Every structure is written in structure tokens, then in C-alpha cells.
Amino acid sequence: MKTYPQIRANTLSATLMLLTCLWSVSFPAKSWGQASTASINGTIRDPSGSGIPRADVVLTNTQTNLERRTVTNDLGIYVFLNISPSEHRLQASTTGFKTARSRLSHWW
Questions:
Q1: Rounded CA gap, 70 and 64, in Å?
Q2: What pLDDT, on the 0 to 100 scale, is given for residue 57?
Q3: Is 70 exceeded by the pLDDT of residue 66?
Q4: 22: left (phi over 0), alpha (psi -120 to 50) or beta
Q5: CA of 105: how far to CAs of 22, 46, 51, 57, 86, in Å?
Q6: Rounded to whole angstroms, how far apart are CA atoms 31 and 18?
Q7: What is the pLDDT of residues 17-52, one digit of tens each?
Q8: Which parts of 1-108 are beta strand (E)?
Q9: ∠ CA 70-23-8 to the nearest 5 degrees?
Q10: Within 10 Å of residue 50's Cβ, how many Cβ atoms?
Q11: What is the dihedral of CA 77, 81, 87, 93, to 10 degrees?
């Protein structure tokens, strides 16, 4: 089993914040289409830039408290499909790393 060095929470948080920014600009404006849902994907990385496999990722709708969970693949990639427009919390955690949290706002 591969081990990873302890990282500072702000490094993982900064990665999540960057992913949040990329996520928020990747959706078309409301007038461009008929879609009422979206997907969220990203990569959880360590300070060296390597993806963190088997990290637990939780997406929580702050209005309904509905949680959706996934685990990153061997490259540290996660995907959530059919996400409704709302404010969400994104949390990533795995053994040997501090839990990182980020807020995601709806896209229109």
C-alpha cells in the first residue's frame, strides 16, 4: 500500500478552491440551454501534484442536506452526475491527510 506524506489542510483546500473556480466557469449560462442539472468533477491532489486515490468525497446540498458520496479513482479523479442547481458543500478526506472543505454556489 502506497503511503503519502502529511499535507497541510490549506494545500488541499487550495486545490479544492481551484477546482471550484474551474467548475463555476465551466457551465454555460442559463439562456444557452435547457439542462437543469450538471456534473461536478475534479481531482484531489497532494502538494507534489499527484492524484490521491481512494479519497472519500462528499457533496452536500445545503438546502436539502442531501449527501452524495464517491471515492476517487487511482488518479484521484471524482465525478458527481445530475447535480441540481443549489449551493453545495464539497468535502474530501483520506487517511494521512487533513479533511478539506469548500462551498460551491449554484451556476445561475
A1: 19
A2: 97
A3: yes
A4: alpha
A5: 12, 25, 25, 17, 6
A6: 26
A7: 656 555 555 555 544 556 688 889 999 999 899 999
A8: 38-43, 56-61, 67-71, 77-83, 88-93, 100-104
A9: 65
A10: 13
A11: -30
d(CA 22, CA 9): 20
Q: Which of 57, 67, 66 is nearest to 23 (CA)?
A: 57
29-13-78-41 Cα dihedral, nearest 10 degrees: 10
* Cell 502506497 -> residue: 2
Reduce the DSSP state of residue 67 to 3 states and report it.
strand
Query: What kind of fold does domain 9-25+37-104 have according to CATH?
Result: Immunoglobulin-like (2.60.40)
- CA dist 88 and 34 (Å) reads 21
